[in-house]
Design a protein that fits this description.
The chain is mostly beta strands. It has one domain: 6 Propeller (Neuraminidase), CATH 2.120.10. 0% of the residues lie in helices and 60% in strands. Strands 12-13-14-15-16-17 form a six-stranded antiparallel sheet, with no helix packed on it. Strand 15 and strand 16 form a beta hairpin. The radius of gyration is 19 Å and the shape is globular. The two termini are 17 Å apart.
């Protein structure tokens, strides 16, 4: 069983989610079904969080509720990513440095220290250890990674033109050796590494929780020099899947990457991939002629 979200248009209606029961797909309307849905956190069939462009939305088993956080006095737009340990401890990130926490009763904006970075992802390993990444959409060379440890935000990695810094310590580097435009962030309890997927490649920030060096796996290591990496997920530090444009779906075993060549297709773009137990699901779209079709790939490890 899996549930995917985004924007689905048919000849008769618009939808923004779909549910697979193992045999067939069911198209779902979240609220009106007309607004694209960008992220999802599925706890169980009666407890699901999603986001539209700026708003958290919750399913309680009976109905969807949209939380218009701007009407609550929060100047925030948090549609890009969700992480939470339960519905009483949810974090939402989005554009213009927006980070919002929900404690089960109230939404609270957290000050990120930036108004230009659009946060693309948040990931946590428990209630007190989370990391957030993003970049400046108007100047993608400006990227930022924050730690959120025990409710305290700290800048741990930053790029700006040809300068990068770890924990506010400035260094210079060549234009090919850094991790900018981060799209996804991931880590695990049993490693000191924070994994980053970005438009420039796949990187390890080493020295968690406050890393002090980076190891970048260049795009030249992959079959497509111009592939854009969109997302990643995994079960362990040596069991990570990376997906992106041109049908890119790659497995990282901790040392090298192995690609699924049967998925190569210049028309395919995978926007997100998620792993649970022995199942991986990658979702995106297929540019088919003048049409754009929904694309869902499900893999089962035997």
């Amino acid at each position: 069983m899996c549930m995917v979200v985004r924007e689905i248009r048919t000849d008769t209606a618009n939808y923004n989610a779909a549910h697979w029961d193992g045999e067939k797909w069911e198209l779902i309307k979240i609220l009106s079904g007309n607004s694209a849905i960008y992220s999802i956190k599925y706890f169980n069939e009666n407890d699901i969080w999603v986001t539209s462009h700026c708003f958290p939305i919750h399913w309680n088993g009976n109905e969807w509720t949209l939380y218009h956080i701007q009407n609550m006095g929060l100047d925030a737009c948090v549609g890009n990513s969700i992480w939470g340990s339960s519905s009483e401890n949810m974090y939402f990130v989005g554009d213009n440095g927006s980070i919002v926490h929900y404690d089960g009763s109230n939404f609270e904006k957290m000050e990120s220290g930036t108004e230009v970075i659009d946060f693309t992802d948040i990931y946590g390993i428990d209630n007190g250890n989370m990391w957030i990444c993003g970049y400046d959409n108007d100047n993608p060379k400006n990227s930022l990674i924050l730690s959120l440890i025990d409710d305290k935000l700290k800048k741990i990695y930053e790029t700006n033109e040809n300068i990068y810094s770890f924990n506010d310590k400035i260094s210079h580097f060549s234009s090919t050796y850094y991790c900018n435009v981060p799209s996804s962030i991931l880590t695990f309890e049993n490693t000191d590494k924070i994994f980053i997927s970005s438009f420039t490649g796949f990187a390890e920030l080493i020295g968690k929780p406050y890393p002090n060096r980076v190891q970048l796996f260049q795009q030249s290591d992959y079959r497509y020099r111009l592939t854009s990496i969109k997302s990643m997920d995994g079960r362990d530090k040596n069991d990570i899947y990376i997906c992106g444009s041109k049908g890119l779906l790659t497995h990282f075993n901790g040392i090298t990457t192995i690609e699924f060549d049967e998925l190569k297709n210049d028309n395919y773009t995978y926007l997100k991939c998620k792993v649970k137990d022995d199942i991986i699901v990658a979702v995106g779209y297929d540019h088919y002629g003048l049409l754009t079709r929904a694309l869902v790939t499900v893999g089962i490890r035997e």
